[in-house]
Amino acid sequence: MNHQLAGDVRSVTDVTALPHPRASHPPARVPLFENERVLAAVLLAPAILLLLVFIAYPFLMGIWLALSNTSVGNPGQFIGLANFVKAWRDSIFRTALANTFIYTAWATLLKLALGMWLAILLNRPFRAHRIVRAAVLLPFIVPTVLSTFAWKWMFDPTFSVLNWLLFHAGFIQDKLPFLSNGTYAMGCAIAVNTWRGMPFYAISFLAGLQTINPDLHEAAALDGANGRQRFWYVTWPLLMPVTVVVVVFSIIQTFADFQLVYVLTGGGPANATQILATYAYQVGVAAGQLGQGAAISLCMFPVLFVVVWIQLRYVRHLEGA
Amino acid sequence: MIETAWRKWIFFYIPLTLFLIGILFPFYWMLITAIRPDSELYRAWRAVNNQPFWTLRPTFAHVEDLLAKTLFPRWLWNTFFIALVSTIISLFCGLLAGYALARLRFPMAGSLGTSIFVTYLVPPTLLFIPLANIIRDFQVGDTPWALILTYPTFLIPFCTWLLMGYFRTIPRELEECARIDGATRVGAMLRIIFPLAIPGILSAGIFAFTLSWNEFLYALVFLSSPERKTVSIGVVSELIRGDIYFWGQLMAGALLGSVPIACIYSFFVEYYVSGLVGSVKG
What we know:
The complex is a heterodimer.
Chain A: H1 2-17, H2 36-66, H3 82-89, H4 91-122, H5 129-136, H6 138-141, H7 144-154, H8 161-168, H9 182-210, H10 214-222, H11 227-255, H12 259-264, H13 276-286, H14 290-298, H15 301-320
Helix pairs in contact in A: 2-14, 3-14, 4-9, 4-11, 9-11, 10-11, 11-15, 13-14
Chain B: H1 5-34, H2 38-41, H3 61-69, H4 72-103, H5 109-120, H6 124-137, H7 144-150, H8 152-169, H9 172-180, H10 185-196, H11 198-214, H12 217-222, H13 231-238, E1 240-241, E2 244-245, H14 247-267, H15 269-279
Antiparallel strand pairs in B: 1-2
């Protein structure tokens, strides 16, 4: 509204200024930022510039690297899809790909189930609920690497406190091979990921639960629905929008996880917990084969793309409804 | 509905207590390991005199070693500095961009918002190899700037997204009133809307700060000198010599690296939680 006014004023000054050629320039202080387009461009410039230089440009460069045989000290030439073909023929890559899916699927399911349960518990009124809620989020706050070290120490082959606990509780006769057996090691990685990510689910669900009108539960109860039915027919559908977004975020984070596995097992034993990110690091950084490494990490892209696409479709669907 | 006492125990107190024990036990374990003397620490799990859950001879030897014989204080400072500067940069960019996307009308506003949301979902593991090349080309490898410039790639989209949502909750009328009273568009933005958005800015800031404190992969790839490292990679690469883990020092490091961020978090729990909840609002 105001910028139209400003435009009118300028046209008036233009008309009156016609006899004086020197004054035919616009007035000295043009209210430039009153123009929404100009202002938007200026406000968006820093963010877009940074994202172009450090996301769009590396992305294109990553595609180029993946199509070349670049290694440390060798500028590299275009070799087409050879890196991807090589990756597919590489049994470690296929193990890593399968492991990434297993890791993501189990960790997401566990986080969803336990996070929902915890949120429902936290949604009940009880004393000290603020401090309990703050404590619940701790695993999510503390740097993953540092808390993973604590877990690694708890899984230590010789000094494991978990073995001690299980032995004295009478569950086991001999120590469990937490990180030295492939299946156990994967289980441990999934458990630690669940421990770390569950608070995010729980707190997001808790926020969702608090927006559900208690009258709905009361009405359902009056109609004779029991606890389980009220969960499945009232709580779950109403939480669906939150659930979809939280799960999408979590799938992306878990699928592209690096630090937890890197510290806990380093991909071992014998690549049993190798996932795409740790393998890309091993090939691209530790062994210096930048092209091959970039190709391996780009293999995550199609999956991430599909997940994001589903998410965007779902948001549109909600907005359309 | 009246809940009987035993049902409340079975369905509420016991599960909640188990959850809390599971969630907090690793932190207790960090603490007890950090203050336990080595002679008790390295006692086989089945040793008869093993009492893993407490110690009668607490010692600060590990903490002293960590602070005096390693570069740990330096790493702590590096982490803090990098997290602070990259958070400030991201808040600045996110605040301006979030305002523009929430309030201004311009061509492509919708698709720009979507693409910022999509970059928000790009994980560091996808781009770290080409980014390492770019960091080297810019000649900022092995300096704090390598991280200060790259952390905003995941912080800006997040801050923009969160603040955009926050700006939408501030009534447009406030701005229009200021404009009628003679404020310029920029003046109304700076003096009316930004001050009202301070809770949102705090949420985004706290969340961004914890995210950068937590970051590991970029720091691992871009930094190499021991005195330039952040806590996470310093602990990984300098406290493990060969195959030998110095668990006492490691746990002391884990504890001291977690305490600052946990303290900051505890002061701003409400802001952090609203940041977390806002971050997943579509």
